[in-house]
Amino acid sequence: MNFMRIFGLLSLILVLSACSSIYYKGLEKIGIPKRDVMVHRVEKARETQEETKQQFKSALEQFTAVTNFKGGDLEATYNKLNGEYEASVKKAEEVRKRISDIEDVSEALFSEWETELGQYSNASLRQNSQQKLTATKAHYQQLIEAMRRAEAKIEPVLTVFRDQVLYLKHNLNAQAIASLKGQLGSVQSDVSALVAAMEKSINEADAFIQTMEKQ
Predict the structure, then answer these.
(1) Can you give the pTM of this predicted structure?
(2) Phi/psi of residue 144, each to 5°?
(3) End-to-end alpha carbon distance in the chain
(4) Which carries the bigger pLDDT value, residue 15 or residue 108?
(5) What is the pLDDT of residues 39-59, one digit of tens each?
(6) Which of 52, 62, 173, 208 has a C-alpha 20 to 30 A away from that of 123?
């Protein structure tokens, strides 16, 4: 990577960071603090993960239906499977964006919180705020790690679906169906692992939201 490209990327990062800062300041001016933005984004991420979980279940059902194909319009069956795959890709992209949005606001919130600790004149209040910050950071770390673990399980499933969709696209015949059937057990296992990870992440989101609302 040459110097100009590096410089361009750094400039873009600075512009985006500035935009985020201006955005959060604008929200605060109308009475919406960063912590409320963070809670809202965690809620949206939780909703998206729930939708994504259901989407991958739906895709698995369609994949299973293809392997059980007994006759009829195979091209129409392929189109349904491809539609489920494309919908899954969109949900995967949405999950990634939701997580990135949470990371962005959390960085701004924690940075501001750290700075404001130095503004206290009352040692007891400062210590209490520091304890809350430490606890919130720890809980946040649990949340974001759970979300990233769930996200990491998406791409392997998409890769398998992509391969099967491509193969079926160019081989609309009984032999292709038989080949897909041999992959069914592995796909079911991967989707089950993804769903379990999503459910754990959703539970972490619920717990984090409850903690933030109690503070």
Answers:
(1) 0.84
(2) -70, -35
(3) 46
(4) 108
(5) 999 999 999 999 999 999 999
(6) 208
Residue 22 banded pLDDT, cuts 50, 70, 90: confident
Q: What is the pLDDT of residues 119-156, one digit of tens each?
A: 999 999 999 999 999 999 999 999 999 999 999 999 99
CA distance 170 to 172: 6
Alpha carbons within 13 angstroms on the beta-carbon side of residue 116 total 11
